[in-house]
Amino acid sequence: MSGTLFRERIDGRTKAVAALANAESWKVDHVNAMFACDVEEFVAECTEHQEFLTKVWADSLQRAVDGRIADMDAHGRFLLDVISSSLDTYRQCEQHIAKAIGLGHAVERERDFHRGKIEVAKIGERIRKQWPIIDPDEVAAALQAVDEGRAQDIETIIDELLHHGSESRP
Description:
Elements: H1 3-65, H2 72-102, H3 110-130, H4 136-147, H5 154-167
Helix pairs in contact: 1-2, 1-3, 2-3
């Protein structure tokens, strides 16, 4: 094999290998772009879900005011479970958003997603603070206090209020 032919062969194979490298780069770019598209769909679903949960919260408040919730405790616990699970999913979505951005892709509706996540977290806090959920530990402590004679039963309290109230009237 002559030197020129040998060089051309080496040069040709080198260019072919380089072309494969560029093809792999293109494939990686394509996979990353598809990932970013998937993340945008995930963000859109989460954002719509956040709007849905906000409506569920408003509906739950209205139903509570109207007396249309049979078991307030169970309903409150259900809402907390749904919100906790949703916030876990939103954290996963945030990780995917960060990865897509790290790959150089902008994520549509990212800000809407973050605002919605904050709103759902606030709803969870409102439920924890305001919803009439029965705390089993508090109930157990109250029953133990009654059993140990450290608390009065309701009849005694009402009787004392009635008698004390009648003594203070002229």
